[in-house]
Amino acid sequence: MIAGLSLILLCQLVGEAIVRGVGLPMPGPVLGMAFLLLLLLTRDHFTALRRGPLQNDAVETTGRSLLGHLSLMFIPAGVGVVKKLDLVIEHGAAILLALSASVVITLLVTVTTFLAVNRLLSRSQPAL
């Protein structure tokens, strides 16, 4: 499990270093996650990648363990909200409006995307 966690953190570090070094407008952990995905997808094609934490599903086991404790990651955010509760109360209407608008916009975009993909797929498939 330590080897799998080390590989996950190494990919995150590499992603962060590339983003900061090149000045890319994206989060470093996202690039690191893409790098980890690339490693996992290509591990069966290269013998050098079949050793270490990429063998025996060490990364997958570590990932499942981390997902099992994912709720712990929300504790700092909850503590931050409680610590700044006076600001939340002061700007509650604006926060509620922003949350409501983002939910509605997300639903509209999701439905529109689903309908568009559904139309494209139904056109490309011949009738049986």
- Global shape: extended
| Proportion of residues in β-strands | under 5%
Q: Structural class, judged by helices and strands?
A: mainly alpha
Instruction: Give the integer mean of the pLDDT values.
Output: 89
- pLDDT < 50 stretches: none
Rg:
21 Å
* CA distance, first residue to last residue: 50 Å
Describe the largest sheet.
none
Query: SSE order in H/E notation?
Result: HHHHHH
Helix count, DSSP H or I runs of 4 or more residues: 6
The level of helicity is over 70%
- Total number of beta strands: 0
Describe the structure.
This protein is an all-alpha fold. It has 6 helices and no strands. It has helices spanning 2-22, 28-42, 58-68, 75-83, 85-90, 92-124. Helix 1 (2-22) packs across helix 2 (28-42) and helix 1 (2-22) crosses helix 3. The chain is extended, with a radius of gyration of 21 Å. The mean pLDDT is 89.
Provide a short characterization of the protein structure:
The protein is mainly α and 128 residues long. Helices cover 74% and strands 0% of the residues. It starts with a helix and ends with a helix.
Notable characteristics:
single chain, mainly alpha, 128 residues, extended
Please give the structural blueprint.
Elements lengths: L1 H21 L5 H15 L15 H11 L6 H9 L1 H6 L1 H33 L4
Helix pairs in contact: 1-2, 1-3
